[in-house]
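Structure (tokenized):
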């Protein structure tokens, strides 16, 4: 009972602090003049993905690499499922029909990196450099180059990640308040992320469901709720491009966490130590992002119960994935 209490308290702290973190990130972007481009492309994904960074790093540090990788892929699956929620609360045409097709760039890079990680889980050996596997160094390089490409694209098409909307929620607030609030929220998330990872490892042992399942479902949902709060807020304000951009940007950043997990995992290259079952969740995340890309290109007008066909496909796939993960966890 204490372990469950510890898990829910840490999850609640992450949800609260994560929401505050994203609001302060928005304030910093506005007051520094960096605006929506920076906030949508890098700053907000960095803020909303901080819980995943801390939790996965801690999981690796305590010798639970499956918990770390399960959190990464599980969060990416849940993030795409948020698109269906945005579709439900946004009036008019299906949400993927209303936003810019440029989001395909971020989604495509996330798919490419996921495929690379999946391949390296299957490969039996690797070469280490400075104690880090060469594949993790390649993930680091891919993220840096990909981020640079995104920023260049943003400068070329500045409306990609945000529309010209009123920011009344930022009036009367200073940059100092934003930086202070961002720092305090970050500290709370670091503390809560450590608690969440520790309790997640204990729950995996107590319930017998395994680290992969606990990481991909329980921890992934808990650490992804800041993304849900941020994208829902952006959608209600009519900032649909920023909402969708935050989802794909967070997915791309989450994959960089493999490099972070590698640094904190000392026994050896982390991708060679994890369960082969992560290939399943990785492939599901690829499939869901591919469905979103199809929706962005095809732009179907058909809706069922206020949901586009792409959103319905995403919801059904997510629910089936959860059931299969529980079945796989119970059977292992």
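Design, position by position:
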């Amino acid at each position: 009972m204490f372990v469950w209490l510890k898990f829910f308290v840490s999850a609640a702290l992450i949800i609260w602090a994560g929401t505050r973190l994203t609001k302060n990130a928005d304030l910093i972007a506005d007051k520094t003049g960096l605006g929506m481009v920076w906030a949508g492309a890098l700053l907000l994904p960095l803020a909303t993905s901080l819980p995943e960074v801390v939790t996965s790093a801690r999981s690796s540090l305590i010798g639970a690499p499956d918990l770390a990788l399960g959190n990464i892929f599980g969060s990416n699956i849940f993030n795409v499922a948020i698109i269906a929620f945005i579709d439900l609360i946004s009036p008019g045409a299906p949400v993927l029909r209303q936003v810019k097709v440029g989001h395909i760039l971020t989604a495509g890079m996330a798919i490419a990196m996921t495929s690379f990680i999946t391949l390296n889980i299957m490969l039996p050996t690797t070469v280490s450099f400075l104690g880090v596997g060469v594949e993790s160094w390649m993930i680091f390089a891919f993220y840096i180059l990909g981020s640079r490409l995104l920023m260049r694209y943003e400068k070329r098409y500045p409306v990609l990640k945000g529309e010209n909307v009123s920011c009344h929620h930022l009036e009367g607030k200073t940059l100092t308040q934003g930086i202070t609030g961002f720092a305090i929220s970050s500290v709370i998330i670091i503390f809560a992320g450590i608690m969440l990872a520790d309790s997640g490892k204990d729950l995996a042992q107590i319930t017998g469901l395994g680290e992969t399942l606990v990481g991909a479902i329980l921890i992934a949902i808990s650490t992804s709720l800041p993304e849900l709060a941020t994208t829902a807020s952006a959608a209600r304000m009519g900032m649909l491009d920023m909402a969708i951009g935050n989802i794909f940007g967070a997915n791309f950043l989450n994959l960089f966490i493999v490099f972070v997990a590698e640094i904190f995992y000392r026994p050896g290259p982390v991708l060679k130590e994890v369960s082969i079952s992560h290939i399943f969740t990785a492939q599901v995340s690829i499939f869901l992002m591919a469905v979103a890309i199809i929706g962005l290109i095809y732009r179907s007008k058909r809706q069922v119960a206020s949901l586009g066909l792409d959103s319905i496909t995403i919801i059904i796939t997510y629910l089936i994935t959860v059931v299969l993960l529980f079945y796989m966890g119970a059977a292992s």
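Reviewer-requested clarification: The chain has one domain: 2-331. Residues 284 and 321 are 8 Å apart (CA to CA).
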